[in-house]
């Protein structure tokens, strides 16, 4: 199906794209399997479907903008990570990517553990029935209340992030008559190939205790001297959206060096090493993430080699995929409102959402794909910028993409790979109402996080 082309829409031949794309795809109607959830396709009429339901029906029932999550895909990714690492390792889902009670139940059923980094995430995990001993509490500035609840509930580990926190957790554990399992987060001086604001292992940042200068070693010494702490391992996280495991190799080498130092100085071999998360996903066709079994094999070989070289027993490995599990499982569905061609530049396509439901483009200069999903089109490619409706020039959802030149108000377009961080970081900017999260599976759809209402906004405004 096609509509008449917009008369003033710039074509690829008229301009040189400034962004990620260097040429339009061969067929704008093809939904690239690298960036879409596994049950997404098109029906006989060219309308995109997910879980057996077409997006027009979903838009009619749930409205737009909305996040649609493929439960089958989510569960399959959980199993892939669990099976890749096997019984000799632990997989902690990083709840900050996206968390709800339904997600917690899926994680529990699929045998994954859960990493939380706030009291709210901990409350959600406990409310949904995740066993406390399968929860890890993270964060660089945990409140006394958060620590007390975590210790009281019996979380499986607390990741210590500062000298003050070592004392704070030990004091609370003593007060509650507990001995709390802990890890110490260290910064290893490895900067992953990622955006500056999400590279979290170089020394000049807020997380962890640096190996350089001996702070990490001193933290280990202090923790080992406190009887109400059970130090079980070292935690390292080197960044986000990482495709190359070479950074993990350098990080593991340095962490194992610390384990050797601990053994030599204290006569203790710590039994765990957590290499964090940060594994990348495909947001565009040019991204080439590694599969879980490849990552598991590489990380296991790296740690084993380093430990054998240091004369240490191989510790139990933990990893923390969040984005790598939930990111590809969802897309955001929008309705096109305004199509504004700028001659010789590009066409601005305005949708009914924006930076309030996806801040990542503005915050990280993130790149996304986009497709017309309410129909197919044989119109030629049109260089486009998908923007939101907010009163902000940086309100960009997809910076540079190709959409059919006959795109018109009322069309539905979808941005894939929005399962991670988009709903978690959503805001009420301009008093926008945060979209719902709708789970689709086997021809059925259900809301797991409802759309906000004006009553929700006004309820918080006490006048």
Can you tell me about this structure?
The chain has 12 helices and 21 strands. The strands form 3 sheets. Strands 4, 14, 15, 16, 17, 18, 19, 20 and 21 form a 9-stranded mixed β-sheet that branches. Helix 9 links the parallel strand 12 and strand 13. Helix 2 packs parallel to helix 9 and helix 5 packs across helix 6. The chain is globular.
Q: Name the average pLDDT.
A: 93
Helix content: 25-40%
Gyration radius (Cα, Å) is: 24 Å
Shape: globular
- How many helices? 12
Major sheet: 9 strands, mixed
For the record, give the distance between the C-alpha atoms at the N and C termini, rounded to a whole number: 51 Å
**What is the percentage of strand-forming residues?**
15-25%
Number of strands: 21
Provide a compact summary of the structure.
The protein is an alpha/beta fold. The chain has twelve helices and 21 strands.
Key words describing this protein structure:
463 residues; alpha/beta; eight-stranded parallel beta barrel; 12 helices; 23% strand
């Amino acid at each position: 199906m096609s509509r008449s082309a917009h008369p003033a829409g710039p074509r690829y031949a008229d301009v040189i794209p400034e962004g990620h794309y260097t040429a339009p795809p061969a067929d704008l109607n093809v939904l690239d399997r690298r960036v879409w959830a596994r049950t997404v396709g098109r029906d006989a009429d060219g309308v995109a479907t997910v879980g057996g339901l077409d997006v027009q029906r979903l838009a009619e029932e749930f409205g737009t903008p909305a996040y649609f999550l493929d439960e089958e895909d989510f569960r399959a990714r959980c199993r892939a990570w669990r099976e890749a690492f096997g019984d000799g390792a632990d997989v902690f889902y990083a709840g900050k990517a996206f968390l709800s009670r339904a997600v917690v139940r899926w994680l529990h059923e699929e045998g994954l553990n859960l990493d939380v980094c706030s009291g709210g995430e901990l409350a959600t995990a406990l409310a949904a029935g995740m066993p406390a001993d399968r929860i890890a509490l993270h964060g660089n500035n945990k409140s006394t209340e958060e620590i007390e609840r975590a210790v009281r509930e019996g979380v499986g580990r607390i990741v210590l992030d500062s000298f003050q926190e070592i004392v704070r957790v030990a004091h609370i554990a003593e007060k509650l008559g507990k001995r709390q399992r802990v890890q110490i987060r260290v910064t290893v001086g490895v900067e992953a190939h990622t955006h500056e604001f999400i590279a979290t292992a170089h020394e000049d940042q807020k997380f962890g205790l640096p190996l350089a200068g001996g702070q990490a070693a001193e933290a280990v010494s202090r923790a080992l001297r406190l009887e109400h702490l059970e130090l079980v391992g070292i935690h390292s996280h080197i960044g986000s959206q990482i495709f190359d495991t070479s950074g993990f190799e350098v990080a593991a080498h340095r962490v194992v060096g610390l384990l050797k130092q601990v053994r030599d100085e204290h006569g203790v071999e710590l039994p765990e090493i957590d290499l964090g998360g940060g594994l990348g996903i495909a947001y565009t066709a040019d991204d080439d993430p590694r599969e879980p079994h490849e990552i598991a094999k590489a990380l296991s070989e790296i740690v084993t080699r380093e430990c054998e070289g240091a004369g240490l027993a191989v510790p139990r490995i933990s990893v923390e995929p969040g984005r790598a599990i939930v990111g590809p499982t969802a897309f955001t569905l929008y309705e096109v409102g305004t199509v504004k061609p700028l001659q010789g530049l590009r066409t601005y396509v305005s949708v009914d959402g924006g930076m309030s439901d996806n801040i990542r483009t503005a915050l990280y200069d993130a790149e996304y794909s986009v497709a017309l999903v309410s129909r197919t089109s044989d119109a030629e490619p049109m260089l486009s910028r998908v923007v939101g409706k907010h009163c902000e020039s940086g309100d960009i959802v997809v910076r540079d993409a190709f959409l059919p030149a006959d795109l018109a108000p009322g069309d539905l377009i979808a941005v894939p790979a929005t399962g991670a961080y988009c709903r978690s970081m959503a805001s009420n900017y301009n008093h926008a109402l945060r979209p719902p999260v709708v789970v689709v599976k086997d021809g059925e759809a259900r809301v797991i996080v409802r759309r906000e209402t004006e009553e929700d906004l006004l309820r918080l405004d006490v006048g």
